[in-house]
């Protein structure tokens, strides 16, 4: 079957995902549930901020709300990458060795 060039193609599978970063603002009562109800597909946990307990608590809340709403919500753990430093060492050059903390 060939469609005319002006006919819209309706794909039942949504390929775009909505990613929302969780933090103190999403901890307010009802905010996380509203985010999931309105279409959030992935929650991002920024491990550069907050404690492990904060992230665990938020993820547990996501799982509970998603289960109750019959939604599937993925979790994305955002790990900190290398920090680039652009300054001089106070005591001059430093030699780095493998395995050094």
TrEMBL record:
Known EC number: 2.7.1.40
Domain spans labelled Pyruvate kinase barrel: 13-99
Any one GO molecular function term: magnesium ion binding
Keyword terms, alphabetized: ATP-binding, Glycolysis, Kinase, Magnesium, Metal-binding, Nucleotide-binding, Pyruvate, Transferase
Pfam families the record matches: PK (PF00224)
Alphabetical list of Gene3D superfamilies matching this protein: Phosphoenolpyruvate-binding domains (3.20.20.60), PK beta-barrel domain-like (2.40.33.10)
Pathway: Carbohydrate degradation; glycolysis; pyruvate from D-glyceraldehyde 3-phosphate: step 5/5
Protein name (Swiss-Prot/TrEMBL): pyruvate kinase
Superkingdom of the organism of origin: Bacteria
Entry-linked InterPro entries: Pyr_Knase, Pyrv/PenolPyrv_kinase-like_dom, Pyrv_kinase-like_dom_sf, Pyrv_Knase_brl, Pyrv_Knase_insert_dom_sf
EC supergroup of this enzyme: transferase
Family per similarity comment: Belongs to the pyruvate kinase family.
């Amino acid at each position: 079957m060939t469609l005319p060039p002006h006919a819209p193609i309706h794909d039942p599978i949504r390929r775009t995902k909505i990613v929302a970063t969780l933090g103190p603002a999403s901890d307010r009562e009802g905010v996380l549930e509203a985010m999931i109800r309105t279409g959030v597909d992935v929650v991002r946990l920024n491990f550069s901020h907050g404690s492990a307990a904060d992230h665990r608590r938020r993820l547990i809340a996501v799982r509970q709300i998603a289960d109750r709403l019959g939604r599937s919500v993925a979790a994305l753990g955002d790990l900190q990458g290398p920090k680039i430093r652009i300054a001089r060492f106070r005591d001059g050059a430093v030699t780095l060795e493998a395995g050094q903390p």
